[in-house]
Design goal:
The chain is of the alpha+beta class. The protein has helices spanning 8-26, 58-79, 97-119, 130-139, and strands at 31-36, 49-54, 90-94, 123-124, 146-151, 158-163. Strand 5 (146-151) and strand 6 form a beta hairpin. The protein starts with 7 loop residues before the first helix and ends in a 45-residue tail after the last strand.
Amino acid sequence: MDEKKYSVDATGPSIEDFLDMVFDHLDFDVEYEILEGQHLHPDLEDPDLLVKFSGPDVDLLLANKAELMLAVEFLTMEALRMPPEHHSRLCFDANDYRMLRIEELRLSAVTAAEKVKQTRRPFHFNPMNSRERRIIHLSLRNETDIRSESTGTGPFRQVVVLPIDMPLPEPIRPPRPMPPRDDGPRGRRPGGRPGGPPRRGGGGGRRP
């Protein structure tokens, strides 16, 4: 990656304003720090800025493979009007999730490569965001018998690992989820909103 384009002094206040608005609206009890990139895996991921979350509700951000944290990260990039090629320059993390996820993706890439070498059949990863696809590609960049390609569009974009001489196959589109059953009206739960979980107490996403 070339020279830094974002810094705590220049970009931090805009990130802070947006996150305060988001976490005040969600009523989550989380705190965060905006730090310069820490270069833990510079060959795979080397962001300019790192936002680290902590607090009682941080597990809500990390549920379902950090789905909410990654969604807030993406919305922050959109609010900052960062072009897609700059998305790897901003990284959200909590409880060292990113470092563990990088290692998980790297091992998955190596395992997929070995399977493709043995079977000569393409291996399709589940759809993932551009940052995670990049980690897969970089993990396999020195392979000579196989290659990795991104295929598909939008939320279905995925990585395919295949023999070096094989044409790129069509992407595998995940099945659509079943529509929810209509079991009649749902009542108000004690202490909560109609049909939803009880509201959590706590402050917004303020910096410590």
